[in-house]
Specification:
The protein is an alpha/beta fold. The chain has 2 domains: 273 residues, Rossmann fold; 145 residues, no CATH class. It contains 17 helices and 14 strands.
């Protein structure tokens, strides 16, 4: 064989192994065209790839449409716009791009060099369904790629762009999907992964979805939605609840006692912006509104005051969202896949009570609740309310999900993230909502900079390894890591990420969570 032929054969082998375009080991062919990525520190990344057409003009409030094909090789070297929103000043993951309505893009990280059949992880960001994006530094997928994982992140529509209803939209889309446009984007992104991820060296038959907060709630939706069935094979839920939604969950058409329908809210928003009526002219006028008018100051800080003109998040549309997660789990109607789920030690939660007597009155077994939350009677009411808030919103629903699925024979793992960065221990009462994310992605250097401590890095290495192992096999355990037992309702084990490293054992909050679970079941 001539030298030229040998070089050509080697190039073909490399391109074939990565499904890359001939002659370009950093180039892949998607179903929309060829894209060129960038190699850095052993990782090949592709950023800003469109997975759907820009949802602008006549495509505002429509299901995602196919991305337009391109010719030649498209550079995929920079993040696309995050979706339109008013950024939240104290966001744990500040955006890296300017928000825009043209935002349906995704990003892929994979090991540089030949690769085939690698496990795939698909990240869904949080932000209360009104904030968030795929561009924050802490969501960089490089460390997962170095562990042999293909990491995908994507954008989905937020706020009134992602969750909106109006009688004219209902008539226009009769028989189609309505209301949950942000969820439609998530499903479209997973379909893109199924069609294209083998071109990046990933295995479309080994896909793990994972998300935090609103992203964790989205994973609950994917687990329980008939329209997401078969698009993934494992799921990780970080601080995503697990019982009834934390949001209003309105119906599209029907008003309920104290809960106006999504269409009623849409009509109120239209009227507030000078758009009257419910016919096609009104819809055309709404689509002509500038994007800033739809945002109208909405973000995580203003969601409450905006409740008369914003649906509050996902709606019960009967097609994508058909029931609450707990109803689906109890009936065994969810996808039968391995699940890892947990929450943070000082996670998000709300409970407003004026006295401890009022607090304990909500429990069917008041004595057990007092023994769990205030054993010696000395706790301040604010402290027990804070504990109950996070238990009701995050910790107990995580345990409920793990236990309910485990009883059905599914492999589940529960964690508690209690670790606090060394530099923040004097300021934080515990691991706050979303603070586990830079450890999961092993991007703590980007988060803490010069304040980064060796124990921060060690915790990040461990968390990143557990998550990658779970994506690979459905079991987080691996060489060099403390053993993490599968969830068993009788033993009630958790893996707690502590200041002294990951430690598995019986949940020390079991009595509290038992009392909270009894209260949750009593009101159903």
């Amino acid at each position: 064989m001539s030298l030229k032929a040998m070089i050509g054969a080697a190039a073909m082998l490399l391109a074939g192994a990565a499904h890359a375009a001939p002659g370009f080991p950093d180039t892949v062919r998607t179903d929309s065209g060829q894209a060129r990525g960038a190699v850095h520190d052993g990782v090949l990344s592709f950023k800003g790839l469109p997975f759907a057409a820009p949802p602008v003009g006549p495509l505002r409030w429509r299901p995602p449409q196919p991305a337009k094909a391109w010719t030649g090789v498209r550079p995929a070297l920079a993040y696309g716009h995050d979706c339109m929103q008013k950024p939240f000043p104290s966001d744990a993951a500040p955006l890296g791009t300017e928000p825009s309505e043209d935002c349906l893009v995704l990003n892929v990280w994979r090991p540089a060099g030949p690769a085939r059949g690698l496990p795939v992880m698909v990240w869904i960001y949080g932000g209360g369904f009104v904030n968030g994006g795929s561009s924050p530094q802490v969501y960089d997928g490089g460390q997962f790629a170095r562990r042999g994982v293909v990491l995908v992140s994507f954008n989905y529509r937020l706020g009134r762009f992602g969750f909106f209803a109006h009688p004219a939209l209902t008539r226009e889309g009769e028989g189609g999907l309505l209301g949950n446009y942000g969820y439609m984007d998530q499903i479209a992104a997973l379909k893109w992964v199924r069609r294209n991820i083998s071109a990046f060296g990933g295995d479309p038959g080994n896909v793990t979805v994972f998300g935090e907060s609103a992203g964790g709630g989205s994973v609950h939706m994917l687990l329980t939605s008939p329209l997401a069935r078969g698009l993934f094979h494992k799921a990780i839920i970080e601080s995503g609840g697990g019982r009834s939604s934390l949001l209003p969950m309105r119906r599209i058409h029907e008003d309920q006692p104290g809960v106006p329908s999504a269409e009623s809210i849409g009509l109120a928003f239209a009227k507030a912006h000078g758009v009257e009526g419910d016919g096609p002219e009104a819809l055309a006028a709404l689509r002509r509104l500038p994007a800033e008018a739809l945002v109208d100051g909405l973000n995580m800080a203003s969601m409450g005051p905006a409740r008369e003109t914003y649906v509050g998040g996902p709606v019960l549309d009967g097609r994508i969202v058909v029931e609450t997660p707990d109803a689906a789990y109890k009936a065994g109607r969810q996808a039968r896949v391995p699940v890892m789920i947990g929450a943070n030690g000082a996670d998000l939660g709300f409970a407003f009570v004026g006295s401890k007597d009022e607090f304990f009155a909500s429990f069917p077994d008041k004595a057990a609740a007092r023994a769990a939350y205030d054993p010696d009677g000395s706790a301040e009411v604010r402290a027990v309310a804070a504990e109950l808030g996070r238990d009701k919103a995050m910790l107990e629903p995580a345990r409920f999900t793990a236990a309910t699925l485990a009883v059905q024979g599914l492999k589940t793992y529960e964690y508690r993230f209690s670790y606090v960065a060394r530099s923040m221990r004097k300021d934080w009462p515990g691991a706050l909502h979303a603070t586990e994310i830079p450890y999961v992605f092993d991007t703590v250097a980007a988060k803490y900079g010069q304040d980064l401590a060796p124990e921060d890095e060690a915790t990040a290495r461990a968390a990143n390894a557990y998550w990658a192992n779970f994506a690979r096999t459905g079991d987080p355990n691996g060489e060099g890591l403390p053993p993490w037992p599968a969830y068993d309702p009788k033993a009630d084990p958790i893996m707690d990420f502590t200041a002294d490293g990951p430690r598995a054992g019986p949940d020390p909050l079991r009595a509290r969570l038992d009392a909270t679970a009894a209260a949750a079941e009593a009101v159903r």
